[in-house]
Amino acid sequence: MVAKHIKSLLYEHDCVIIPGFGGLITRYVPAVVHPVKHTITPPSKRVAFNEKLVLTDGLLINTIAYYNGITAVEAQQMVAAFVTQANNQLKTDNRFELSDIGIFRYNAAHRLEFEYKAGDNLLEASFGLPEISARPVRAEESVVLRSLQNKRAQDIPQNGTKFKRRLRRVYSTAAGLIIAGLTGSALYLLSLQTEYNLSSLNPLAQFNNATINNQATASDYTADYVPVTEEERLATYQNLLLNAGIATDLEADFIASTSEINDSTWQHESAALAETTEGVADQVVEEEAIVEPVLTITEKTGRFYIITGGYSRLQNAETGRDDVRENGHDGKVLTPLRGSRLFRVSAADFATAEEAQAAMNEYRKTYGNSIWVLNN
């Protein structure tokens, strides 16, 4: 039963610690192309063992307790019995097999070694993908296929070729007739319009029309008409204004109105500038008041954290934290404690253990039943 829970946890976590025995660590293996067998293996996870990771992180014990409906103490006793059985079997047979995961043995220096046994693909992104066999294409096969295609092309009867040529000629003739008919119809419709004259495209006709228009304009005046120059017209207006005494008053009124407009414009611009300055100052104060949230916990705080997973690398832990924050929760990364190498990701933290346990059911709806509480 303990081995079954260990395998299920390896699907979701990078590290699963067996208290008093060691830790199983997974690493990503990319797709592999075998040059001899001509097979393509999908990406997967490969499991390694570290016998120094013996300090429990509570993941395995809490998972067993939840799924079996027992207390944490009883789950810890089950794990201890499993470790005792594994050690006894190693002493007697020098071999202990963890089903669908790997085999443990003692080497000549009496150190525990682990041999990974490839079974089910532990990578969720590649779950269910089989190994693909690819047969290479040989050069002689392409030559044979090309000769068969040429032979089939020669066997096709040539009767349809003449018919296609005739059909293509009919299409070309019909298209030409349709285009000619449409062009003639368009010209006929244009000729029916009273305001449109096809002869207007002639540049000589346009020149003649311009000459006729100029002559008509000149004929509007009488024969004894003498035009007045611009200088004579301006001098006559100025004399009339001076005689009436209006020019001086108009200049004074113009200067007074101009000064009033300038004063009012300056007042409006000053008020607008003051309002803009105040708005910018308020915006700067609001930006300075924004405080960035704490995303990484590097020291003990004494609070109780709901842990969603443990990771052996900081990059994977930060990815898990981003997923938690996308779900709308206060995701944080807790750096490894003394005696541990795991980066833990939390979804929430509370001041007391009672508050954290009371909120567990709500967070299990999103992160499953493998979450647990850590007092940091």
UniProtKB/TrEMBL annotation:
SUPFAM superfamilies attached to this UniProt entry: Sporulation related repeat
Domain SPOR residue range list: 298-376
Keywords per UniProt: Membrane, Transmembrane, Transmembrane helix
Membrane-spanning intervals of the chain: 170-190
Domain of life: Bacteria
Keyword Transmembrane recorded: yes
The protein's name: SPOR domain-containing protein
Source organism phylogeny: Bacteria, Pseudomonadati, Bacteroidota, Cytophagia, Cytophagales
